[in-house]
Amino acid sequence: MLLGQCHPRADAATTAFAKGPIRAALGLASLFALCSFLIAVFSLVAYRLGFVDIIRPLPDGPAVHPVTSLGVILLAFSVVLTMQRARWFIDGVCAVVALGALVQLVFPVQASRWFQSIDSFPAGQEAVVSTSTALCLLMLAASLLLRRYGNATVSQILSVLAYGAPAMALVSFILGVQESHVSMSLTTVLMLIPLCVATALRTVYHSFLRALLEPTHVSALARRHLALVMMAPYLLGLGLVGIRPDAADVSIVILIVASSQTVGLVVAFLALSFSNLERRSNILQRRTETRAARDGLTGAMNRTSFTGHARREIGQHRSIRSNVSLLFVDVDHFKRINDTYGHETGDRVLKRIIRLARCRLRSGDTVARWGGEEFVVLLPATDLNGALLIAEKIRYRIENEHFDALAAGLRVTVSIGCAEISSSEGLDELVARADRALYEAKHQGRNQTVAA
């Protein structure tokens, strides 16, 4: 941000981090939600047409219930629909799904009877909404509700925990474990896993996922190791069962999935903590650099930082053959102000003058304190006539400012020298000519502008 602006602007880089990964994650969220949506719709069609192999892929195994498919459809639609006008509709959909899942968990027998009364299973064996399915739908609905109300951390944690239900069902299927508490139709697993991922990715701008996708060394390190540490429990569990097939039971399934989720959350939490520390460190570093580049009293650029900035600006505009001008400003009779009203009042006068000058400058202009009561203003893409016009606006604004709030009877004026750089000049020569014009303005009686 240039210091010549009247109103500071927010740094756009703080809100536009890692655009590529973020956009990719949001695109994947919509894609996964669409996959869940299509599978759920396909299962409903299969249910109506009596395709038993689709809704019950394994003989005598669990089957997907139409209520489950309907819940997945509603939640997938809520993930994709992000319009603010649909906020209450999305909240209502999530609340209905959460309520239905909660009823199944609290009153399983009564809920199962009611769900079964909706439609009969084509093959004679009734499908049920299992406890693990209801728990997964409840956590996903709660995750979406929390996302809507800004609690991204808990929303992401619930998405990870919800993923555990279909993950346990899938591991049980691989290991051949038959247990009603973790059993789930393979079709249901294929619906819920993409939905869990899509729900988590919708909060990618915040919390754990933001920390994992930021373009920092800590985030890159966490991304490289997250997949490995989350897959380790699965590989160890499968290896153990391969060595001892009789060890395959529900406790092994729960241990594998719970270990993977716990390790993943720990890594994500560490990434978030270190990312926050790194962000705060960068903010402190930028503040330190900004303070080093500014005058401690007025907040304008100091002489050293202005010199480097001005030379870069001159080189850039000279390459495109654009004009550059400079104003040299001096407060008239400043010593008299200090002697009469005190140095504290003199400091306040300098601050007020810088503020008034900034409000008469453009966004690309730069003001700096040169020394004592002297200031310089760099005016890129400005010829001498334009510089004179800006200088007169500054001088007139200061002359007509009421300084009575600082000290009764106080009146402040400035003298200004203007110069436009020539093709053979550098910054030092430009400053010297503007300084000579300033001396001429003071010699002619002060409170005026003179061009070199």
Please, could you describe this protein's structure?
The structure is a single chain. This protein folds into 2 domains: 14-286, no CATH class; 303-451, Reverse transcriptase/Diguanylate cyclase domain (Alpha-Beta Plaits), CATH 3.30.70.270. It is built from 16 helices and 5 strands. Mean pLDDT is 84; it is low at 1-18. The radius of gyration is 35 Å and the shape is elongated. The chain is an alpha+beta fold and 452 residues long. Helix 3 packs parallel to helix 8 (186-201). Strands 2-3-1-4-5 form a 5-stranded mixed sheet, sandwiched between helices.
**Shape category:** elongated
End-to-end gap: 30 Å
- Approximately how much beta-strand content do the residues carry? 5-15%
Unreliable runs, pLDDT <50, ≥5 residues?
1-18
Salient structural properties:
single chain; 452 residues; alpha+beta; Alpha-Beta Plaits; 2 domains; five-stranded mixed sheet; 5 strands; 7% strand; elongated
